[in-house]
Amino acid sequence: MVESLGEAQRSENQSVSLFKDEITSTVAQLGESAFLSCIVPRRPEITVSWVRLKDWRILTSETQVYYKDERFRLAHESPDTWTLVIKFVKKEDEGLYDCQMSTRHGVASKRFQLTVVVPEATILNGEDLFVSAGSPFTLTCMVKEAILPPHYVLWYHESRLLNYAEQVGPLHRTSAVVDLDPGPPTVSRLTVPVAQRQDSGKYTCRPSNAHPVAVQVHVAQGNEMAAIQATDGSGTWSSSADSQINVLHNHSKFLFITLVYFVKSLYL
Asked: What is the pLDDT, as a whole number, of residue 73?
């Protein structure tokens, strides 16, 4: 009997020693699932619990979940593995979690640091793109800081979806082509082969895993573009988003030039 009790105590002490000074870093992407896996040698005298340290909330004890948030659950697929699963992870889920093993001789913890990364989308063309009528232009949208690529990247011209619709109406006589490189980083490009006046407007890149971003495209006739170049003073511009582009951030400059040509036409 004494020998049996000694074996049980040694078993508990060995299990406790496995938990000393251990910290595991886990990274999850916003909106995806986080998995915190804790391995505890299964013994009848050991109780395993998950605790969120920022508010000392007991999330699970053994196979029971004590938190009302249904995003939290326990996966106990093998006798020694206790995995805390957080579905649709949020930024506020970030922080420290303890996998606690309780025995008659005390409590040992294995600590997990959960970091939630938030993907960010950016359009490389800037906020405004000036294009000469008849020229092609390409808009490039990049999704950074992502562990997993987005399920999709949608492009809109004003409120019109461009990825799948037949290109008639706002983009008639042209075909907007969308291609996607999953990366990393994920890059989506929208190309309009022949720019026309009606191609002007707001273009929005909307990835499934990041906030949408937009660019304003201005399609100008030849004489207007020449005036824009002269006003800018650089003498250089490009209609391609994959090359160095010259972006005029002062939108009133373009409106002023257009107004001048309109007034002139009234007196000709």
From this structure: 95
114: β partners? 26, 95
Q: Dump pLDDT digits (tens) for 212-235.
A: 999 999 998 765 555 455 455 443
pLDDT tens per residue, range 32-76: 999 999 998 877 788 999 999 999 999 999 989 999 999 999 998
Distance between CA atoms of residues 268 and 256, nearest Å: 19
Which pLDDT does position 225 carry in this prediction? 56
- Contact between 66 and 29 under an 8 Å Cβ cutoff? The reply is no
Q: In this structure, what token pair is assigned to residue 192?
A: 């309009």
Residue 106 forms beta bridges with which residues?
103
**Among the listed residues 35, 27, 29, 28, the one whose alpha carbon sits nearest the alpha carbon of residue 150:** 29
pLDDT of residue 192: 94
Q: Which residue has the tokens 């909106």?
A: 31
CB 175 within 8 A of CB 184: no
**What's the whole-model pTM score?**
0.66
- Given the structure tokens 């461009």, which residue do they identify? 162
DSSP code per residue over the chain:
-HHHHHHHHHHHHHHHHTTTT-EEEEEEETTS-EEEEEE----TT-EEEEEETTTTEEEEETTEE--S-TTEEEEEEETTEEEEEESS--GGG-EEEEEEEEETTEEEEEEEEEEEE--EEEETT-SEEEEETTS-EEEEEEEES-SS--S-EEEEETTEE-SSS---GGGTTS--EEEEE--SSEEEEEEESS--GGG-EEEEEEETTS--EEEEEEEE-HHHHHHHHHHHSS----S-TTS-------HHHHHHHHHHHHHHHHT-
C-beta separation of 174 from 166 below 8 A: no
